[in-house]
Amino acid sequence: xxxxxxxxxxxxxxxxxxxxxxxxxxxxxxxxxxxxxxxxxxxxxxxxxxxxxxxxxxxxxxxxxxxxxxxxxxxxxxxxxxxxxxxxxxxxxxxxxxxxxxxxxxxxxxxxxxxxxxxxxxxxxxxxxxxxxxxxxxxxxxxxxxxxxxxxxxxxxxxxxxxxxxxxxxxxxxxxxxxxxxxxxxxxxxxxxxxxxxxxxxxxxxxxxxxxxxxxxxxxxxxxxxxxxxxxxxxxxxxxxxxxxxxxxxxxxxxxxxxxxxxxxxxxxxxxxxxxxxxxxxxxxxxxxxxxxxxxxxxxxxxxxxxxxxxxxxxxxxxxxxxxxxxxxxxxxxxxxxxxxxxxxxxxxxxxxxxxxxxxxxxxxxxxxxxxxxxxxxxxxxxxxxxxxxxxxxxx
Length: 396
Ligand code: PLP
Description:
Shape: globular
Helix content: 40-55%
Largest sheet: 7 strands, mixed
CATH superfamily of the largest domain: Type I PLP-dependent aspartate aminotransferase-like (Major domain)
CATH topology of the largest domain: Aspartate Aminotransferase, domain 2
Number of strands: 12
CATH architecture of the largest domain: 3-Layer(aba) Sandwich
Number of domains: 2
Oligomer: single chain
CATH class of the largest domain: Alpha Beta
Radius of gyration: 21 Å
Strand content: 5-15%
Bound molecules: pyridoxal-5'-phosphate
Order of helices and strands: HHEHHHEHEHEHEHEEEHHHEHEEEH
């Protein structure tokens, strides 16, 4: 009687959510100070002060009906203009307001883009490890999701593996850098190799293979590492951006799709984005937030706080003997499980109060993800538990 697929999706919580709920229950039983919850990617740094200030200014100075009213379906022109100007300044490109479609965050940007690009029989390529919702979004839009293995150890995209799995059915490759769950930033060398391969394959198959650039973590990088801006390397790119992490606004649901004007038939693709937004009911992103973003588009988050957490966690774990993937960005640390089954490792970690997400759901068995967007003090307190967990494996 009802949609079986949707019942399946709605009845099963993600492993991340399961762990988070378990953590709350466990904290009530044994005390919050004995639970070290590394499960959820909720920013721990407050939004920059200018965000709240701007919200107040807008509420105090504009008529309520205007502030809370509908905007254009694709978003307010003045907001899109402000983002386009900033993008041009920052990346030296030439985009206009008409290339942008405002959305309710990166999740909506991705579903809109996937629906806009879809034709019967198409496939989407995701590079492991990847955000588990890519599978949900791609399959719901009618694609088969195909997984490419990364280069062992560095977790950079592997052009050889990509070359093996790209077919005339491949519509797009999703690139997510800085990466959730690994924290890896794709190097310029990797990006150039992927672009060269896709260019070659597009020419061979006589149709463009798109890059969907999922970049909610673009601004969260450390030690001067830079994130290559894909539209400067490849024409057929759609950028899915979000202010959820960069400005710590995940609950406000605000982001955008940007169709690179150099895409093949870019105006048609932009029309398809508007159409997909309409078909999915994602028109007119939150209007107050659009007005805020117009004013704070240049604001920066306090990356130093995340870096301090990363250094403490990575340094502490490596000193104990754990192996970590080099984390250049986002706020996740990917750590090698101490046994082949990361689910079993995560279960054992729970006995020590440590909530670590097994990598299997990210298509990366043998690893666990630690979201270090938590208090610095919790990381400090958790170190003896990590040591005890490590020792328990030595004793086996
Ligand atoms: N893409 C990745 C890689 C993410 O990690 C997330 C959220 O955690 C999203 C997309 C969705 O972001 P948003 O909250 O802006 O919808």
